[in-house]
Design goal:
It contains nine helices and eight strands. It is an alpha/beta fold and 267 residues long. β2 and β3 (73-77) form a beta hairpin. α3 (100-118) packs across α4. GO terms for molecular function: hydrolase activity.
């Protein structure tokens, strides 16, 4: 009788643990990736880059966050990946011509929510053009939990707005915006960023475009590489593409992925 009771007890324990719901496995090395568009950008700006990450099996889009002018966040969430893919989050600023500091504040709020939703401590961020400036400012001014930062064609040292208008005619309508003021050479916003940049201790990847004249049409290589003066751990890479093509290029995709994820080089 005692033998039967013992066997029954063991079988009961086995069945109990077999039917317990499994907890999601969280990989500490594969953090969520937040994509931030540039000046006057929209959802379309980085959408195709995210799609290529998905097609390559590198990640899966889990959310889009639209940020209103009044700082309200509107989330569209998708199912989290079942495997070990990177979780991709797209940020869209409705006021894409606002200041670097304001966009940094908005981005910090988005990142805090992503961290909460994914049960992670940090995120990776990819910022194109002004998005890279806002991302840098989010680390420096807001202490946003960013573990690695990618800047693509980001004018760390500024740009000429006249040059921007020549290649992006719509920017003529926003010459008086806060963003236009901040982007230009010698602006107070960029001076402040430079004065704080030596506090940036996270790994950085800075990509620059070069159409053959040392620029990507609007941003010089020197300006795109501006963080190298301050950041101890930085990778620099030049691609033979124009400004917008920096987020529409397979070579850029691969370089960014390999920087962000340790498994990228072997996949």
């Amino acid at each position: 009788m005692k033998w039967m009771i013992l066997v029954t007890g063991i079988l009961g324990l086995i069945l109990f643990f077999s039917f317990q719901p499994s907890k999601p496995v969280v990989s500490l090395k594969r953090l969520p990736v937040v994509f931030v568009h540039g000046y006057l950008g929209s959802e379309r700006s980085l959408e195709t880059m995210i799609q290529r990450f998905e097609q390559n099996g590198w990640g899966e889009k889990i959310a889009i966050c639209e940020v209103d002018e009044d700082s309200t966040l509107h989330w569209t969430r998708f199912n989290a990946p079942q495997g070990d893919e990177l979780q991709l989050v797209q940020v869209v600023f409705k006021d894409a011509s606002n200041s670097i500091e304001q966009q940094a504040k908005w981005l910090d709020e988005v990142i805090k929510q992503v961290v909460k939703d994914t049960s992670q401590s940090d995120v990776y961020v990819i910022g194109h053009s002004m998005g890279g400036l806002a991302s840098t400012a989010a680390v420096l001014y807001e202490q946003a939990p960013i573990a690695k930062l990618v800047t693509l064609g980001s004018p760390i040292e500024g740009l000429e707005y006249e040059q921007l208008m020549r290649h992006y005619p719509n920017s003529r309508n926003f010459q008086q915006s806060k963003g236009a003021r901040d982007l230009q050479y010698g602006s107070l916003a960029l001076q402040k960023l430079a004065s704080e940049a030596n506090k940036l201790t996270i790994p950085v990847f800075s990509g620059a475009g070069n159409i053959g004249d040392g620029t990507d049409q609007v941003v010089t290589i020197e300006s795109a590489y501006g963080l190298q003066k301050f950041v101890p751990s930085i990778q620099l890479r030049t691609f033979s593409v124009g400004h917008s093509e920096l987020h529409e290029n397979n070579e850029v995709d691969r370089a960014v992925y390999e920087f962000l994820d340790e498994k990228g080089a072997s996949s």
